[in-house]
Write a structure and sequence with these properties.
alpha+beta; 23% strand; three-stranded antiparallel sheet; 575 residues; four-stranded antiparallel sheet
């Protein structure tokens, strides 16, 4: 006896007991009867309903139902991707779902399992399946087909929509509306995308218990009473929805609308992949909009002081155009008619001439003893200063600009005075610097030098300190110039030039640019002086030495060196 027969008997007993006594039979609800029925169910052999193959005609009907708005747009897209991947991969839809909500990336399908090696090919990497649970992953190639059920476009569109929603490549491939992995329970809860309800098919008809794709009885897709798929007509023009509301409530915004590529089948049309309408120019999907100006005037400062001290002047304040978010924008974005006033007249009353003065200075001019304190005094009339500050128009005498002050008697004090440091006594290497240290006595602002013993009780500053001028480098050394090679008529002098290190050794590291000259011209005076008297000639060869020795005062040398002595006398007269 089957468990269903026992349940039928128990139902009959309860029915008659309820009719006679008004309550069900208590004996039929005994726990032993319940356990008996459960045991019979476990021992009974269940024959699963026969699954019919998922043919292309049946897949076309399913896809058409999904694309015409079977459930929510997201669920329709998930189911369509599952059906296409199962059909072209020779798999079951249950291959892409999990038995529980726990996601295992090593076994369950993930987004990274689908790659796009070219513009016409997708590869699905099947990590494990019911028929190959321990084998290596198997690639399944999906191509772009010129068919209504081409798997390339819907799968690629689904993957792009997942990635656009910030999904990670390691996330599950198929997820529910709330982002959880699609389980078999979720897959079974959705009615089959079949235009004929399962309750409208008589049980006696063949195929009433047939099941497709490994789904549960609530997900059967039947082939009976489904009209044949008509031939597709060429694509219709792009179909645009109504414009959306402006993206902002004020200021420049954007309106959007949805564009669909639709294709007719008989007397009906359905949405197809946008690539089918690629040859047609789509209408604009966005347009600019502006409902109102999204800004207002803001007074950002108080009124300034009046431009004059007396009489009529003007005062100003800052007025700016700001957005509703508080950002400063161009004045053109605000209504010019609603702009608050930025300047206005101000009346400071009649102008009166009077003396004005500052406070007395805080310090006395002397640190001790008598001194003075000062202040400034001006005569103001009609908002300005009188020329020269004379105060001719001011009433009353001019207030005093100075007054006496006294800081008390001056007390003499002694201190060490240090002069500035001298330069370092060497040009390179380590040397010393010096300064003068003297003892002075200060009385008020006067200083007097006193003996050092007066400052003996004070710490005396250092008079010498070390200084460092940097590392010594080789430098040029020269000898004295030699005697001129000629006594007259452009001679030449020579000297020795050597490069020596700080320890006076020869070196080749001296800078050549400041190298001293080794030769120079000398005695450029002519050797035969020119005089107007032809009889005045030098009779000796050493007349230059006679002139240098000032022997021309003697008649003998004056006659022997007439030309040289005459020329020397002429030069003396010119100077």
């Amino acid at each position: 006896m089957k468990s269903t027969t026992i349940q039928a008997y128990i139902s009959g007993i309860n029915f008659f007991t309820r009719l006679t006594s008004g309550a069900p039979c208590q004996a039929t609800s005994h726990s032993h009867i319940t356990m008996l029925i459960k045991g019979l169910r476990k021992t009974e052999v269940h024959t699963p309903p026969k699954r019919s193959p998922l043919t292309s005609d049946l897949l076309i009907r399913c896809i058409r139902t999904l694309r015409s708005g079977y459930s929510s747009p997201y669920v329709d897209k998930v189911l369509e991707s599952m059906f296409l991947l199962a059909f072209f991969g020779f798999l079951r839809c249950s291959e892409f779902t999990a038995s529980t909500s726990k996601y295992n990336p090593s076994c369950h399908a993930s987004i990274s399992d689908i790659s796009n090696p070219s513009t016409d090919t997708l590869i699905y990497n099947l990590k494990c399946s019911k028929t190959n649970q321990s084998g290596p992953p198997q690639p399944i190639y999906l191509f772009r087909l010129d068919s209504y059920i081409s798997p390339f476009e819907p799968l690629q569109e689904y993957i792009n929509s997942r990635l656009a929603s910030r999904a990670s490549p390691q996330d599950p491939l198929f997820v529910t509306e709330i982002g959880k992995i699609a389980t078999r329970h979720w897959f079974h809860r959705h009615p089959p995308p079949n235009p004929v309800s399962i309750r409208n098919i008589p049980r006696s008809e063949p195929g009433a218990n047939e099941e497709i794709g490994g789904g549960s009885p609530t997900q059967r897709l039947h082939t009976h009473s489904v009209p044949p798929v008509p031939l597709a007509k060429p694509p219709l023009p792009w179909e645009a929805s109504q414009w959306s509301e402006c993206s902002v409530s004020c200021g420049p915004g954007v309106q959007q609308r949805q564009l669909q590529c639709r294709q007719s089948f008989g007397n009906r049309s359905t949405m197809v992949h946008p690539q089918r309408c690629a040859s047609l120019t789509p209408p604009d999907s966005t347009q600019a909009c502006q409902l109102r100006l999204c800004s207002h005037w803001e007074v950002s400062s108080d009124w300034s002081t009046c431009s004059v001290d007396c009489g009529v002047g003007r005062r100003t304040r800052s007025v700016r155009c700001v957005s509703d978010q508080g950002n400063i924008v161009n004045d053109k974005d605000c209504s010019s008619r609603a702009r608050p006033q930025g300047s206005e007249e101000c009346n400071m009353g009649p102008c009166v001439t009077n003396w004005y003065f500052t406070n007395w200075s805080n310090t006395c001019s002397a640190q001790c003893g008598p001194g003075v304190q000062k202040r400034e005094v001006v005569c103001l009339t009609r908002g300005g200063v009188r020329e020269g500050g004379g105060g001719g128009d001011c009433v009353g005498d001019k207030p005093a600009e100075m007054k006496a002050c006294n800081k008390g008697p001056c007390v003499a004090s002694t201190m060490w005075y240090s002069s500035p440091w001298t330069q370092c006594n060497v040009q390179c290497g380590n040397g010393t610097q010096r300064r003068d240290i003297i003892c002075v006595q200060k009385t008020g602002n006067d200083f007097t030098v006193v003996p050092a013993t007066e400052c003996a009780h004070l710490d005396k500053p250092a008079a010498v300190q070390e200084c460092e001028m940097g590392e010594c480098e080789p430098q040029w050394f020269t000898t004295e110039w030699s005697a001129c090679s000629r006594s007259c008529g452009k001679g030449l002098q020579m000297r020795e030039v050597r490069c020596l290190t700080p320890d006076k050794k020869h070196s080749h590291d001296c800078d050549l640019r400041p190298k001293p000259e080794q030769e120079q011209i000398c005695n450029t005076i002519p050797c035969s002086p020119q005089v107007s008297d032809e009889n005045c000639r030098d009779k000796r060869h050493n007349c230059v030495m006679v002139v240098q020795a000032r022997l021309c005062v003697y008649s003998y040398y004056k006659s022997a060196c007439c030309a040289s002595c005459t020329q020397s006398a002429q030069r003396a007269k010119r100077h």
